[in-house]
Amino acid sequence: MNFKQLAENRHEYAKAWKARTGGQVLGYYDPYFPEELAYAAGMLPVRILARHEPDDVSTKWIYASCYPVRDYVNQFFNGRYGYLDGIVDTGGCEWVYNAFEVAMNTTPSLKTHYIFIPRYPNAPTSPGLVVSELKTMKKVFEEWTGREITDESLDHAIEVYNKNRLLLMRISELRRAYETPLFGSEAMQMLLADQVMDKAEMNAILESFLAELQERPPREDRVRLMIIGSETWDAELEELVESLGANVVIDELDNGTSYFWNTIYEQKDRLLAIALRYLGRPHSALRDNNWRRRSQHVFELAEDYMADGVLIVKQIYCVIHGTDNYAMWKLLRERNIPYHFFERDTSLPEDETRQRLESFINMLKPGLVRLRGWHEPLVI
User: Fold this and answer.
1) What is the CATH number of the domain that holds 32?
2) In 146-255, where does DSSP find H-type helix?
3) Of 48, 200, 331, 353, which has the most beta carbons under 10 Å away?
């Protein structure tokens, strides 16, 4: 399955979906956006993703922000997302909100909505607050589409999205094997494609892909790496790691595994069930500034997927991860987990990044008894 092509052709896919179904396409920035509500209204929620292209527009509208936010604005003015009927922001990064404001203030015909997801997900008042926000958003979506969001349509949306997350989890579990059939670049491209496609259609593709993975011969074991840090919009880093003889077996990115890591537990109050799922997802750096649950989640992933080392990849100018990295460094040092930190901007400086990664991977190799195979006796 060519997930890379699916992700790269996301605009063509959305336009074709819109022409085929007559439905509306809704763009969102943040993985805290409760997609089920839009899906229940007959809309197609698509994640707005950055891409690497020349930018001669964004500085006029939003100055000195991180690359992805500048690119959102650049793509918007260059007509990349001209097919969107609406756009939603969920109170995430302030710079992303600025991109949302630019879209809102320059395109009066674009439907816009802001939903507040609290910065403290585990506060006792957070579930009730989010349910209140969802009730308002439900009415807004019903007005936009002229379609009532019933309990039945919500149940269907929850079922489709839960199935999608469980399929992604089953595929992710295969990456725990020593000789995993799945490389990190393919897994990331799969996740990016998943966030821009109709989940019912994607579920059929994932079921077929899972069957294909079961038949693949095991691949050679490699140095196993984990990626944490700012969101990504391509698999360029994973591909570079693979070219150096290693493999990214897990990540903790907002639009990586954190996107699907927990499901909705169905209950009578559908909106409460949806609220609890999004509040209970793995904490992003933005929403982990009080209870500090992200550090433990990172450690558990590194342990479960037997990561030999961690790559901390920060988007340049990302204040959120810049301040949160100190907690990550402290955790990894305390647990004796090797890590390498670097920043990225519009694209990876390949020569420099290759040299740094190669040195880090070579540093890990001498201490890896596991690469010899646990079944082989240790001869001293």
Assistant:
1) 3.40.50.11890
2) 151-173, 184-194, 199-215, 236-243
3) 48
The reported pLDDT for the residue numbered 7 is 93
Specify the DSSP class assigned to residue 306. T
Tally of domains within the chain: 1
* Residue 66: inside a domain: yes
Distance of CA 123 to the CA centre of its chain: 24
> Does residue 253 form part of some domain?
no
Alpha helices by DSSP H, listed for the chain, are 3-8, 10-21, 35-40, 67-77, 94-106, 126-145, 151-173, 184-194, 199-215, 236-243, 270-280, 294-304, 319-334, 350-364
Structural domain for 26, as ranges: 3-148
Within-domain flag for 25: yes
Confidence at 292, pLDDT banded by 50, 70, 90: confident
Q: Report if residue 31 sits inside a domain.
A: yes
Q: What sign results for the dihedral spanned by CA atoms 284, 159, 141, 28? A: positive
Distance CA 284, CA 119 (A): 10
- Which pLDDT band holds residue 217 (cuts at 50, 70, 90)? confident
pTM, to two decimals: 0.92
Closest by Cα among 97, 109, 44, 38 to 73: 97
What is the strand order of the sheet 44-47 is part of? Answer: 44-47, 25-28, 86-89, 111-114
pLDDT score of 379? 47
Beta partners for 343?
314
Average pLDDT over residues 8-34: 95
Cα 293 to Cα 156: distance, rounded to the nearest angstrom: 31
Pairing of strands 111-114, 44-47: unpaired
pLDDT reading at 63 higher than 60: yes
